[in-house]
Amino acid sequence: MAKQSVILELDRPRSLRFGLNALVRIEEMIGKPISRLDLDNISVKDMRTIIYAGLFYDDKNLTPEKVGELIDDFSDINTVAEKLSEAMTEAFGRKNGKKPTAGKEKTGTGTGS
To answer: I need a labelling partner for 106 at 20 to 30 A (CA). Which of 10, 14, 18, 58 fits?
Structure first.
C-alpha cells in the first residue's frame, strides 16, 4: 500500500510524502536518525530540509532553497508545520488514535511485574 500524501498549497498543490527514501534523505541531510527528531522543537533549517525531502518525491527539480522560497511566497511557517505534522502522521501511523512517539513506548518485562 502506497503512503498517502498530504497536499501542501504552494505555487501549486504539492504532494508532501514521507516514504523510505524521503526519510533517508532527511537523515543524510540533518545528520541524525529520524527517531531522534523532535518535530515540536526543530530549527527552521531542519524544518525546511524535512519539507524539501517530503516534496522531492513529487518534484525532483526542487532544492532546499527553492522550497524556502515557495514557502515564503505562497504559504507561512505555521501552515507548513501543520502539514508537516499531518504528513509525518501518515508516514508513521497512529497508535490508539494518538500521534506516534518514537522510543517512548512502554515495554513489559514478561515477568508480570
So the answer is: 18
